[in-house]
Specification:
Elements (H helix, E strand, L loop, with lengths): L12 E5 L9 H6 L1 E5 L4 H7 L2 E4 L7 H4 L8 E4 L10 H5 L3 E3 L6 H16 L2 H9 L15 E5 L3 H12 L3 E6 L3 E4 L3 E5 L3 H5 L4 E4 L13 H6 L5 E4 L8 H10 L4 E4 L19 E3 L10 H17 L8 E2 L4 E2 L20
Parallel strand pairs: 1-2, 1-3, 3-4, 4-5, 6-7, 6-10, 7-9, 10-11, 11-12, 12-13
Antiparallel strand pairs: 8-9, 14-15
Helix pairs in contact: 5-7
Length: 346
């Protein structure tokens, strides 16, 4: 699937959906394309004339309602790896190419997950709480080396997480779309229908899967009941992978020992949510991959794809719209653009 040809002038018309801020470092792109920055109220008319949509505001859910009846731009690029907000029927069934920003965030997220594992094992969140209360309470902590981690999701983020955890001495397994024994990053990978069986053997369950019809709500009461009472859940994927009410009930009942959540069904997490106050829960505001320079990296990735678009070359990170993720690269094909940058996704 290729995007529509650029405008007759040879300068593609690029609509950039923004919210509070514009993407940095756009000067080079503006020299090569006719760029129009729009907010949600002006998105619909902009789509009628655009060859390309750059969804800088990747939180927006306005695209489905603004999409023209006769079809929109030939190519939509989103500044995140998650594309669940884009997969509405008119776009999925049309000829528009969709690309994402896989290749930016995997190592930062993997570092974040490793930090969370250490935080739980060494009880650092309790130490900080006790320090704030000026209380001296000695405790024994846990070893990280030798603990078992189950990584759910075998894309670049999941693979980076597996490598980091294994390097720390953990025993790593995976769950993905297909079974794969002896994976170099994730050990023995089980298919998704083997998830419940694998949960009982894990000290840490790390969610790094995309949000699809098959993964939505996969961590529910039944799944949580299969986890160890000492187990912890870490979610850096998408909030709706977890049924939050079931997680709250499991934490209150002691079914599992704790959870570290970087993503939620509703973001920002509403103030009344019990997740803020439950013991053993770490809440972070969807920041696991946001390290210094990430916005510039996002623009550079889009600029590279725009150059490919202008010169008729295959785009990187083309999403299979039916499945909701970028297909795996062909390791035997050095010209496969999906191999260009396997550094991760958000």
């Amino acid at each position: 699937m290729e995007p529509a040809p650029p405008a007759p002038s040879g300068r593609p018309r690029v609509a950039v959906l923004v919210a509070d801020d514009r993407p940095p470092g756009m000067d080079g792109i503006e020299r090569l394309a006719d760029v129009r920055y729009v907010r949600e109220p002006d998105l619909a008319p902009a789509l009628k004339d655009a060859d390309v949509l750059f969804m800088w505001d990747f939180w927006s859910e306005a695209l489905a309602g603004a999409w023209p009846d006769g079809g929109g731009p030939g190519w939509v690029h989103i500044a995140s790896a998650g594309v669940d907000r884009l997969l509405f029927p008119a776009l999925v069934e049309g000829r528009t190419a969709v690309t994402n920003s896989r290749g930016i965030f995997d190592e930062p997220i993997a570092e974040y997950v490793l930090g969370l594992v250490h935080c739980f094992a060494k009880d650092l969140h309790t130490t900080l709480r006790l320090q704030a209360e000026r209380r001296w309470r000695h405790r024994e902590t846990e070893r990280v080396a030798g603990a078992r981690a189950l990584v759910v999701g075998t894309g670049p983020i999941g693979r980076a997480i597996g490598r980091r955890l294994a390097a720390a001495g953990m025993r790593v397994g995976g769950v993905g779309r297909t079974a794969r024994p002896g994976d170099p990053d994730l050990g023995d990978v089980l298919p998704m229908d083997g998830l419940h069986g694998a949960l009982a053997g894990a000290d840490y369950v790390v969610l790094a899967a995309p949000l699809t019809g098959a993964t939505r709500g996969m961590i529910d009461a039944a799944a949580l009941a299969r986890m160890r009472p000492t187990g912890r859940l870490i979610n850096v994927g998408r909030g709706p992978l977890v049924v939050e009410d079931d997680l709250v009930a499991a934490l209150r009942a002691g079914t599992i020992a704790g959870a570290a959540l970087d993503v939620f069904v509703d973001e920002p997490l509403p103030a009344p949510s019990p997740l803020w106050d439950l013991p053993g829960v770490i809440v972070s505001p969807h920041m696991s991959g946001d390290v210094a320079g990430w916005r510039d990296d996002l623009v550079r990735l889009f600029a590279d794809n725009l150059d490919r678009h202008r010169h008729g070359r295959p785009l990187r990170n083309v999403v299979d719209k039916r499945l909701g993720y970028v297909r795996a690269p062909d390791p035997s094909d050095p010209s496969d653009p999906q191999r260009d940058d396997q550094r991760g996704q958000r």
